[in-house]
Amino acid sequence: xxxxxxxxxxFLALLVLFHVLVGLSHAAAAVAAGGxxxxxxxxxxxxxxxxxxxxxxxxxxxxMLTNVTSQMKxxxxxxxxxxxxxxxxxxAAVRSFSTAFVFAIAADYVTVSGxxxxxxxxxxxxxxxxxxxxxxxxxxxxxxxxxxxxIFAVELDxxxxxxxxxxxxxxxxxxxxxxxxxxxxxxxxxxxxxxxxFKNLTLFSGDAMQVxxxxxxxxxxxxxxxxxxxxxxPSKPLxxxxxxxxxxxxxxxxxxxxxxxxxxxxxxxxxxxxxxxxGPAPPLNYANLPKLPRVSAKRRSKVLDVLAPVAxxxxxxxxxxxxxxxxxRRIRYAELxxxxxxxxxxxxxxxxxxxxxxxxxxxxxxxxxxxxxxxxLVLKLGLLCSHPVAAERPSMxxxxxxxxxxxxxxxxxxxxxxxxxxxxxxxxxxxxxxxxSYPSTSTSIDGAPSVLSGGR
Length: 456
Ligand SMILES: *[C@@H]1O[C@H](CO)[C@@H](O)[C@H](O)[C@H]1NC(C)=O
Ligand SMILES: *[C@@H]1O[C@H](CO)[C@@H](O)[C@H](O)[C@H]1NC(C)=O
Ligand SMILES: *[C@@H]1O[C@H](CO)[C@@H](O)[C@H](O)[C@H]1NC(C)=O
Ligand SMILES: *[C@@H]1O[C@H](CO)[C@@H](O)[C@H](O)[C@H]1NC(C)=O
Ligand SMILES: *[C@@H]1O[C@H](CO)[C@@H](O)[C@H](O)[C@H]1NC(C)=O
Ligand SMILES: *[C@@H]1O[C@H](CO)[C@@H](O)[C@H](O)[C@H]1NC(C)=O
Ligand SMILES: *[C@@H]1O[C@H](CO)[C@@H](O)[C@H](O)[C@H]1NC(C)=O
Known about the structure:
- The protein is α+β, with helices and mostly antiparallel strands.
- It is 23% helix and 23% strand.
- It has helices spanning 2-34, 302-332, 339-342, 351-354, 372-385, 396-404, 419-427; strands at 38-42, 50-53, 56-57, 63-66, 73-77, 82-83, 97-107, 116-122, 152-157, 171-176, 183-186, 188-191, 197-200, 209-216, 221-228, 239-242, 252-260, 266-277.
- The strands form 3 sheets. Strands 1, 3, 4, 7, 14, 15, 16 and 18 form an 8-stranded antiparallel beta sheet that branches. Strands 2, 5, 6, 8, 9, 10, 11 and 17 form an 8-stranded antiparallel beta sheet that branches.
- Mean pLDDT is 74; it is low at 1-5, 11-34, 296-313, 334-356 and 413-456.
- The site of one 2-acetamido-2-deoxy-beta-D-glucopyranose has 7 residues, from strand 14 and strand 15.
- This is non-specific serine/threonine protein kinase.
- Keywords: ATP-binding, Glycoprotein, Kinase, Lectin, Membrane, Nucleotide-binding, Receptor, Serine/threonine-protein kinase, Signal, Transferase, Transmembrane, Transmembrane helix.
- Residues 1-27 form the signal peptide.
C-alpha cells in the first residue's frame, strides 16, 4: 500500500515534469520556427508575446484581446522588432511580408458589437496614448491621420463610424496612419468552390475566421483575404490595393494585434497567428487551434434581441405613465370635458421638438395648462428609459426617485460624444436616428463615469 502510494506520487511528478517539458518545447518550437523573421503560434500557451491592456492568454491558449469591459483596449506584440528593409540594400523599398491569423468576435448583443480588431505594424510597442472604442487602440482624436504615426493596419471593424467614412458596420479596411481607410470592403470572400461567387460574412458572429495580409514589396500592393476558418485561402483577395509602405514602415518596426471595446460587451479572440518576411506566412492548421466556447446554440431572433431589452422597461414605464395620466386627467378635467378631447389620440414627438426647449413637444391643445417642469421630467425620463445601451437605463427604483424629485434627472447633452451610439442605432434594425437623442455618458472618450452606473 505504502509502496503503491509512493509510486503513484512519483508517477504524478513525472506526469507534471512531462507536461512542463512539452509546454517548454512547444514554446521553444514557436520561437525556433520564428528564426527572427518568421513566427507561428497555433494557440498562445507559452507564446513569446508582449501583452498590454486587457489582453490575456487564457489557460487553453486562446489570446483574448478584450474581455467584456467597456471602453478598453488590448495589444499583443511580437516582442522583437522586425527589419522591414532588405539588409545592405540601398533602396527605400519595404520587404514583402505576409501574415495570417484566426480570430473570433463574440458579442453579448447579437446585433451589435464593438469595436473591432486589427493587425498592425508600428514603430514602437508603446500605444499608451491610443484611445479605445472607435480608435481601435491604435490612434486617438489628436493623431488620427497624421503621417508621423507611421502605423499601417488592417482593421476588422464592427461599428459604422461616419467620422472615418466607414462603409458599414461589418467591414475590412486597409489603414495608413489613421482610421479613414485607403480601401475597404464589406466582410466576405470570393468562394473558389462556387465559381468565385461573393459570400457575406458577419465579423462578430462568434465564428472563427481567418485573415491573410500579404504585402508585395516589389509591386507595392497589399492584399487582404478573409474566409471562414474551414475554407482554404480563397485565390481572389477581398481587397487588393496599391500602397507604398516605404514612408510608413521605416527601418525596423513591431507587428501586433490590437482590439478595443466601446459600449458593447465584446470579447475579441485570436486563436492562431503566423508571420513571415519575404514569403507566405506559415499556414495555420485549424485542428491544432484552441477551440471556442460554443456560442449559445440557438440564436434568438434579431428583432427580439433588439426589442426585448428596450421594450420591457418602456412597456413598464408606458403603463405607469398611461395610468397616471388618465388618473390625472380624470381629476383635472372632470368638470370641463370638451369635444376635441374625445379625439385625443397617440402622439409622436420629433427629436427636433424635444431637443432644445423640451416643453415645445407638449400637446398644443393643453394650451400651456400644465407644469412645464413636470412635462420636461416625464419626457426626459422617457428618453432615458429608451436608451439604446441597457446599462444606461434607470432602474425602477431610480425612476421613482426621479419622479418624486428626490434625485435630479441628468440633463440630455448634445450628441458630440455619441458617434458610437449613433452608429449602433444605424446598425440595429428597427430604430431610427431620433432615438439617439439621449447620448450615452459611458461612450465618452474621456471615460466620464456614467451618472446611472450601478443602477440596476
Ligand atoms: C477585464 O479585464 C480588466 C483588465 O484586465 C479587468 O480589470 C476586469 O476585471 C476584466 N473583466 C472581466 C469581466 O473579466
Ligand atoms: C533591394 O530590395 C528590393 C526590394 O526587395 C529588390 O527589388 C532589389 O533587387 C534589392 N536590391 C539589391 C541590390 O539587393
Ligand atoms: C509611453 O508613452 C507615454 C507618452 O508618450 C509615456 O508617458 C510613457 O512613459 C511611455 N511608456 C513607456 C513604458 O515607455
Ligand atoms: C502630427 O504629429 C506631429 C508630431 O506629434 C506634430 O508635430 C504635428 O503638428 C502633427 N500634425 C498635425 C497636422 O496635427
Ligand atoms: C451581402 O451584404 C450586402 C451588404 O453588405 C447586401 O447588400 C447583400 O444583399 C448581402 N447578400 C446576401 C446573400 O446576404
Ligand atoms: C494580390 O492579389 C492580386 C490579384 O488577385 C494578385 O495578382 C497578386 O499576386 C496578389 N499578391 C500577393 C502578394 O498575394
Ligand atoms: C526614414 O527615416 C529617416 C530618419 O527618421 C529619414 O531620414 C528617411 O528619409 C526615412 N525614409 C523614408 C523612406 O521615409
